[in-house]
Amino acid sequence: MIKKKSVSDYQYLIVGGTTKAATTSLFAYLSAHPSICAASFKETRFFLDSDYPLPSKFRFKGDVEEYNQLFTDCEENQIRLESTPDYLYCSSALERIATFLPNAKLVFSLREPISRLVSWYRFAVQIGRLPKSLNFDDYAESLLKDTKQDKVLRDMNHSNLPQYMQALQQGCYSGYLKRYIDKLGELRIHTLFFEELAENPLNVLIDICKFAGIDPDFYSDYTFKVTNRTETMRNSGVHNRYRTLRFKVRKWTHNKPIIHKPLRAIRKAIEPLYLRLNTRTEEADSISDKTRSKLVAYFRPDVDVLSKLIGKKPPWQPFE
After folding, report:
1. pLDDT tens digits along 111-155
2. Residues 85-121: tens digit of each pLDDT
3. Selection from 276, 278, 287, 265 nearest residue 237 by Cα
4. Which one, of 128, 137, 155, 111, lies nearest residue 18 by Cα?
5. Cis, peptide link before residue 18, omega less than 30° from 0
6. 254 vs 79: CA distance, rounded Å
7. Bridge partners for 189 per DSSP
8. Residue 143 burial by CB count (10 A; 0-12/13-18/19+): exposed, middle or buried?
9. Cα–Cα dist 116/298, whole Å
10. Is the confidence at residue 247, as pLDDT, over 60?
11. Calpha distance 270→266 (Å, rounded)
């Protein structure tokens, strides 16, 4: 009798961060590879703490074998893929991955922290978490005003604050990334930059394939499309209800392929039309020279540490 495999027997490729760094597009590109089997939805959040401020259907409660329920249509020899950006910020997720997934490798996509903060601001306005009357300068100033609280938040990993209120300190990547490297070793960690993925996705995917040990030739004629782009919404209330409905449907159908696959195909067909109807021309978010200088000063020490940690300098113009 053949023994049924447990969660720890499989190989995994986990895209672990950061937020607002094209992890959805990266997940889509990797999902297409025949050697990879993706989770039934992108952001499982399985290994996050139960009180981490993000919802999910499955959370680790002591039985890691529940993780198998997220990979319902995989062949035994395929690498299992998931993407939860916030794993980067959760030390408990690191401990659980280290304990239960000995064959996992992790990819971290990092983005120039000021542009990432702007993206978080736009996203929070888009979903109605911040008022449209609040400009970016005031948003950034509100996050910069209390550096003591910022240090406490970083030491705690996370808090009950919503993500967009933690976006400043979560742009300091080196401390979070160092924990993963120290725990898992450099050979199990691959770091890439959002800006390089946007400019030359083929080169980035070839590097990831080499890291994962799969054939990079698959991407030689692959069409790279950007997904989950942050848009400027006409009606943020409607968009928030749409996102809630999408999450609920995915939550209850993800492990029911007969239902999930047709609904996903329908969503892919109608979502572009919905976005055309509920988006407006994007307006540039202005940043005063004063605020930009403060943000550069805030992030520069961490960028310097990050460069030494990963052995390469990020292609981030404000810090060159």
Report:
1. 999 999 999 999 898 888 899 899 999 999 999 986 655 554 455
2. 999 999 999 999 999 999 999 999 999 999 999 999 9
3. 278
4. 111
5. yes
6. 19
7. 106
8. buried
9. 14
10. no
11. 6
Report the amino acid identity of residue 160: N
Q: What is the DSSP letter of 221?
A: G
Distance of alpha carbon 117 from alpha carbon 111, whole angstroms: 10
In sequence order, what are the residues at sequence separation of 6 or more whose Cβ sits closer than 8 angstroms to the Cβ of residue 227?
24, 25, 28
